[in-house]
Design goal:
four-stranded parallel β-sheet, 21% strand, 3 domains, 6 helices, 259 residues, alpha/beta, 22% helix
Length: 259
């Protein structure tokens, strides 16, 4: 977000929600400039125009900052429950060890995590046909896009994991989720993230940018989505309405109902 001094909580909340829906679970406010002036020269000084929005006492919305940070903390606490539910590991390749374009296409209703060479060789294994990590995460498939560089040793490692029963897909993003059930059935305007905490499936849900204007609009936007029928009847389903920061538990009997 570029500094223009007209940022407001709606802008900040939209940015926060979009990152929550990508799996970010903890926010850190980076740096606060020292503004010793007390003669009314506001909003004060900042570090420049390309590093975000200053959280300083001269901002017109500063008196309401506590409400925003409490909402952020509540969302973070909800999103740190249990473990994420992610379908596919996207291999980054052997040329560059960093994330690809965040706007890269991936099918609606599914999530993917990034996989680098260190994890591929040192932490990843296969159990019961799924790729597993020591911390408890598991994935249905590894996706290797056509654009990535794959060294012979990495190909050999992937082949070894496939021989143990893991599913490795070379090709398109759509092919990587073929045969899998979407976690959420909704249009592209729905932002969401799914975690499992014990016997509860926890969903963080938000509308698109138009849905941040009012609680009622956000709730209506949720009506276009439903929980995947793959959820077991014995599970509880918890929803976090991002606009209202509301968490609910929905009975298993209505887990596939329109919300």
């Amino acid at each position: 977000m570029r500094l223009t001094w007209d940022e407001n909580f709606r802008d900040l909340k939209e940015q926060a929600v979009r990152h929550f829906a990508r799996g970010v679970t903890h926010f850190v406010f980076h740096t606060c400039t020292h503004n010793p002036q007390t003669d009314g020269r506001v909003p004060g000084t900042s570090f420049g125009t390309f590093i975000g929005t200053p959280f300083i006492r001269g901002q017109t919305w500063w008196p309401f900052m506590r409400s925003f940070t409490e909402w952020t903390a509540e969302c973070c606490a909800f999103l740190e429950r249990g473990l994420p539910v992610v379908d596919v590991l996207r291999y980054l390749g052997d040329e560059l060890d960093h994330k690809p374009d965040e706007q890269e296409y991936f099918p609606e209703g599914f999530k993917n995590d990034y996989l680098n060479a260190d994890v591929l060789f040192n932490r990843l294994d296969v159990e019961n046909g799924r790729f597993v990590l020591p911390g408890g995460m598991s994935y249905a498939a590894i996706w290797v896009p056509p654009s990535v560089l794959l060294l012979p040793k990495s190909r050999a490692r992937l082949d070894a994991l496939a021989a143990k029963g893991g599913r490795v897909v070379y090709g398109s993003a759509d092919a990587s989720v073929a045969g899998l059930t979407p976690q959420v059935v909704a249009d592209s305007s729905l932002l969401w993230y799914h975690r499992v905490d014990g016997d509860a499936d926890c969903f963080f849900v938000a509308a698109d940018e138009k849905g941040f204007r009012a609680k009622r609009r956000s709730a209506r936007s949720m009506a276009n989505g439903c929980v995947s029928s793959a959820l077991r009847r014995s599970r509880r389903v918890c929803w976090n309405l991002a606009r209202a920061a509301l968490m609910m538990t929905i009975a298993p009997s209505v887990r596939t109902s329109r919300l």
